[in-house]
Design goal:
The complex is a heterodimer. Chain A is mainly alpha-helical. Helices cover 58% and strands 1% of the residues of chain A. Chain A has a two-stranded antiparallel ribbon. Chain B folds into 2 domains: 32-83 and 132-238, Cytochrome Bc1 Complex, Chain D, domain 2; 85-127, no CATH class. In chain B, β1 and β2 form a beta hairpin. The chains are: A mainly alpha, B mainly alpha.
Chain lengths: 450, 280
Amino acid sequence: MSFPWAKHYQPTTTFGRYLDAKLPLPRFIYDSVGAGYPAPKNLNYFYNFGFLAGAALMIQIITGIVLAMHYRADTSLAFDSVEHIMRDVNSGWLIRYMHAVGASFFFAVVYIHIFRGLYYGSYKAPREVLWMLGVVILLLMMAAAFMGYVLVWGQMSFWGATVITNLFSAVPYVGETLHTWLLGGFAADNATLNRFFSLHYLLPFVILGVIILHVWALHIPGSNNPTGVDVKGPQDTVPFHPYYTAKDFFGLSVYLMLFAGVVCFLPNALGEPDNYIPANPLATPAEIVPEWYLLPFYAILKSFTVDFLFIPAKLWGVLAMVSAIALLFFLPWLDTSPVRSNTYRPLNRIFFWVLVADCLVLGYCGGHPPVEPLVRIGQLAAAYYFAHFLLIVPFVARIEKPLPLPHSINEAVLGKESKTGAPIGLQPPGYNETPAGTLGSGGATPQPAE
Amino acid sequence: MVRLGAFGVGLLFVVTLLWAAVQPRDPVQPDPVEKYHLAPVAIDWSWRGPGNAGIFGTFDRAQLQRGFAVYKGICSACHAIHRVAFRDLADIGFTAPQIKALAKEYDIPSIDDKTGEPSTRKGLPSDKFPLIYPNEIAARAAQNGALPPDLSLITKAREGGANYVHSLITGYRDAPKDWQVPDGLYYNPYFRSLNVAMPPPLSGDGQIEYADGTKATKDQMARDVATFLTWTAEPKLEARRSTGVAAVLFLAALSVLAYLSYVRVWADIKHPKAGAVPAE
C-alpha cells in the first residue's frame, strides 16, 4: 500500500541504483516494512501479534528442519528416534522442546491475533480478503500441528490420529473409502505415518506462502487500528520503520523470554504424559484428548450426542466442527455494523467478551471426560458459539446504537470525540474536517448496509 | 443472502444442541475406583530447587547413585531401562573404569563371529542396558500375565512423575473391606485400577546396603529411585535449566534495552515538541 504521503525508496549508492534497476528487493522491503509504509500511529500491543506469529512460524520451520535430519518416519523407529534426539543429538532436547512448545506458542499468538481482529473489526471491509486468508492459515496450522503431533508415535499420537481420521468415515456414502484412502490402509500405520511426515514438512511452507498473500492483502488498505476509523492523512500515521520495527523488536524480546522460560522450565506442561508411552494399537488410553489448541473444536464435535433430523450424531459433530471454522469466512458479511472497533460498540462488546469466555469453557469441556454436568455445559457453550456468529452478530449490528466516533486517529490520540455524536460513517456529508484530497487509497469508511 | 443462510444454519445447530442438552441422561454408577484412588503425595525434591519451583535445582550425585543402586538391586529384576547406555552413568558420577566393569556384568545379545549363531557377549560402555525379556510375550509369561514397563521414561509417562513413582512403590496397604483384589494382584490406592500386578518391591528397611552409609529406609529408597528415574527420563534436565536461566536473563536484559529504544524512538510522537523533526 502507499498512502500519497508514503516516502519512496531512494538508492544512494551506485550499487543500490544498479540493484534497484535489476531486482528492486531493497525497494520492496522499504515499501513493505520500512519507512515507505505508513501505519496508523495508535496501534497498541495487540498489534504485535501478527509479527510474532511470523516469528513463531520461522522458529517452527528452523527447528523442524533440524529435527527432520534425525527423525525416522517408520512406526518401529519413530518413537525411538525422538528419544534419540532427546538423548544423543547435540542440543537435540532443546530443538525438540522448542518445536513442541513452539507449536503451542504459535497457536496462542495466532488466537490472540484473531481475537484482536474480532475486537477491532479488522475483518470488515476493506479487509475481508485479508481476514479470509487468515482463516486459511488457521486451517493449515491445525492440519500441520495435528500431523506433527502424530509423528512422535506415542500413545496420544496414535490414538489421536485414529480418532480424528475416523471422523472422515462419517461422510455419507464415501466415508469408509475416504477414510481408508487417507490412512493408506484400514488403520493408522506406516503408510499413515509416512504421508503425515511428508505433509507435515510441506504445510509450513504452504502457510508461509499464504502469509505472504495475507501480508500483501494487508498492504492494500493498510492496517486497521484500535479506533477502527480510517486513516485520513499523514497526521494519523507514522512510518513503519523505525516506529513499529522498534515496537515489534520489543515485543519479540518479551515473547522470546517467555518462550525460553517455558521451553527450559516447563517443556512438558502443555503435553500429555501418555505421549511418552510408545504407540500401542492394542491399548486404548483412558482418555484421548488433542492438544489444548484444538480443544474448543473437539468440544463442539463431542457435543452432538443425539441423532436428529435423520442425521447421525457423529455426522452432526463433524459438520459442526467444520462449520465452526468455516463460518469465520462469512463473518465480514454477517456483521453489517458500519463501526469497526468494539471500543465504540457497547452492545457488541459485551457479546465479544461472552464469546471469549465461551471459547474458554469449550476448551475446558473438550479437555475433560464426558461426564455431567460438563456435557450439558459443553452443549450450551457450543450452541452459544454458533448463535454468536450466526444469529447474534448480525442482529446486534442492526439494533445497536454505536458511541460517538473520533473524527480521526489523530484526534482519538489527542483524546477528543466527534461533536455530532454520530459514528463517523454516519456523519453528515461534508462534516469531515480533513479535505477529501488527502484521503488515501485506504478505502472509504464502511457504509451501513442497506 | 449470507445472513439468511447463516440464520438457517445457526438455528439448525442451536436447536440440535439444545435438543441434545435436554435429553435425559442415564443415571451414572459411581465409579468404585474413584472412591479409594489417591493422588500421589507431593514431595519437595532437592532437584526441583528452592520452592520446589523447578528452576534452579540440580541432582544430588550421591542420591542418583543410591537410586541406581536401588534400581539395580531391586527393580532390575523385572524392569529394563533400555533407553539408557552404560556410558550415560558418567553423568551421575561414575568413573570410566567403574562403567567398564559394570557393563561387563551384563550379557548383550550378539552373533557368534565364528559360527554365526545367536549368542551373547560382555557389555561395553556404549551398549544400552539390555532388555530383561526378549519380548512382551516372554515378559507376560514370566510375570503372571502382567507387563513391567520399561522405566527409562516412566516419570514423564505418568501424571505426577516422580511423586507418583514414590507413592506407588511405598503405597501398598491392606484393601478396604468392600474392595476385591483378584489373585496375584496387590492393592495400591495410587495405581489407576487400584489392583496392581507388581508385588510390593520394597519390603523393608535395609533391603539395600548403601555405599555412602545412608540409612536405607523404605521412604529413602523410594525417593532415591524416583530421583534416579527422573534422571533417566530427562538426562539433560540440568543443562536445560542452566540454559533457561541464562536465556531468560539475557532476554530480560534485551527486553529492557528494546523497551528503552522503543520509548526513545516514539518520544517525539507521544510527547511532540514544537519544531522537532521526527525520528527516522
